[in-house]
Design goal:
2 domains; six-stranded parallel sheet; 14 helices; alpha/beta; eight-stranded mixed sheet; binds cytidine-5'-triphosphate; Rossmann fold
Length: 409
């Protein structure tokens, strides 16, 4: 996936620097070459020798080294890569990047580069949530720096919260997403993915929702991005992390989901993996509904939600070339999915059994059938990431194929 790609890895001074060694191994295993810049503080955590051994390349640390400058000047170093990765990106280095400083080789390279920059922050939770870091990250995001993580978890300083650097595999996947964007089979294509549940307010503190975790939808967004697609992910409230390299629009209700989908612009493909609540309260109360002694529980009048998939599937100039729905069924899986494909007007329907025994909702695996205009494909039980990868590959093949889709009759 990263064959021939050149990564410049800047290793700054944090305890997470040890994970950068594993990151190098993972990137090289994917076919990339890695060259390292090590800050003075970084060298307190990993040695230049380890980085050199793993990259099989010289490690750069000194801005004023006559030999380094004559062999590979710092401007050249910053331009000779396809991507600059900062891992760990410490609070100090992020602050220096935001301020545009050039007070060591790492900061100078980051100021001089004309290549995309991906940062994997790692720091104490209080440093991460400090207003200064929040503002620096905002500034860097506005300038186009892409962030992966940090994750929540136990920290080396015995505190708990966001600040742990993403795992090497997550960073490697994020790198694939960023670099795939210009070279993958879906480069230049635009996708919309919906994911997670919706929440329909009953009053300001109560809502109707469902058990959707968003794992499958988020994995599909990530898989499409890895193939170079520009992806907008419209997601209900979920605990899973934002997929790297994807634009995430957060919504609560089905009405908000529909508005966000219609605002996504011209699309090549749309995948509707969200578990949209079918009904909403006819008149959500504006204040908390109170119990009244002796009175029966209040009646809840429901009205149907808009059908996002059916709306986007309607024929017209704005219709995506390929519309994919999900059929969550607990019985007559394939027959219901075939029927649902026709009713909703989409091109493909991914049928998945969500009866409790399958553990699909919230679980890691999924058994699906792909219902197309040509027939029904039975897929084996796969991890949700694998289902996503396979679906993204099928979509890439379909969008690359010159023949037109057989629309749902
Ligand atoms: N969907 C949608 N908007 C809705 C309801 C569903 O976009 N208001 C989409 C889902 O994202 C999914 C597909 O429609 O891609 C099918 O969802 P599912 O819950 O299986 O079907 P329902 O429409 O609820 O039909 P039924 O009640 O017959 O199961």
């Amino acid at each position: 996936m990263l064959n021939g790609k050149r990564i410049l890895l800047i290793v700054a001074g944090g305890i997470a620097a040890f994970k950068s060694l594993e990151l190098i191994r993972k990137l090289r295993a994917r076919g990339a070459s890695v060259r390292c810049v090590l800050t003075d503080a970084g060298a307190k955590f990993v040695t230049p020798l380890s980085l050199q051994a793993l990259t099989e390349d010289k490690v750069y640390s000194d801005m004023f080294s006559l030999t380094d400058e004559s062999e590979m000047g710092h401007i050249q170093l910053s331009r000779d890569a396809d991507l600059v990765v900062v891992a760990p990106a410490t609070a100090n280095l992020l602050a220096r990047m935001a301020a545009g400083m050039a007070d060591d080789l790492a900061a100078t390279v980051l100021l001089a580069t004309d290549k995309p920059v991906l940062a994997a922050p790692a720091m104490n939770v209080r440093m991460w949530t400090h207003a200064a870091t929040v503002a620096n990250v905002e500034t860097l995001k506005k300038r186009g720096v892409i962030f992966v993580g940090p994750n929540d978890g136990a920290m080396a300083c015995n505190e708990f919260g966001p600040g742990r650097m993403s795992e090497p595999e997550e960073i490697a996947v994020a790198i694939e997403a960023v670099l795939g964007a210009s070279t993958g089979p879906l480069a230049g294509k635009r996708a919309l993915v919906t994911s997670g549940p919706t929440r329909e307010a009953i009053d300001p503190v109560r809502y109707i929702s469902n058990h959707s975790s968003g794992k499958q939808g988020h994995a599909i967004a990530a898989a499409l991005a890895r193939l170079g697609c520009e992806v907008t992910l419209v997601s209900g409230p979920v605990a899973v992390a934002d997929p790297p390299g994807v634009k995430v629009v957060r919504i609560d209700s089905a009405d908000e989901m529909l508005a966000a989908c219609l605002a996504a612009g011209k699309l090549d493909v749309a995948v509707f993996a969200a578990a949209v609540a079918d009904w909403k309260a006819a008149k959500p109360a504006t204040a908390k509904i109170k119990k009244k002694a002796g009175a029966p529980p209040p009646a809840l009048e429901l009205v149907p939600n808009p059908d996002v998939l059916a709306t986007v599937s309607k024929p017209g100039a704005q219709r995506p070339l390929l519309v994919v729905g999900f059929a969550a069924e607990t019985e007559n899986l394939v027959a219901n999915a075939i029927d649902k494909r026709k009713r909703k007007g989409c091109d493909w329907m991914v049928a998945n059994d969500v009866s409790p025994a399958t553990g699909t909702f919230g679980g890691e695996r999924n058994t699906v059938h792909l219902v197309t205009g040509e027939g029904v494909e039975e897929w084996p039980t796969l991890a949700k990431d694998e289902v996503a990868g396979r679906l993204a590959d099928r979509i890439a093949r379909q969008l690359g194929a010159p023949r037109t889709l057989k629309a749902a009759e």
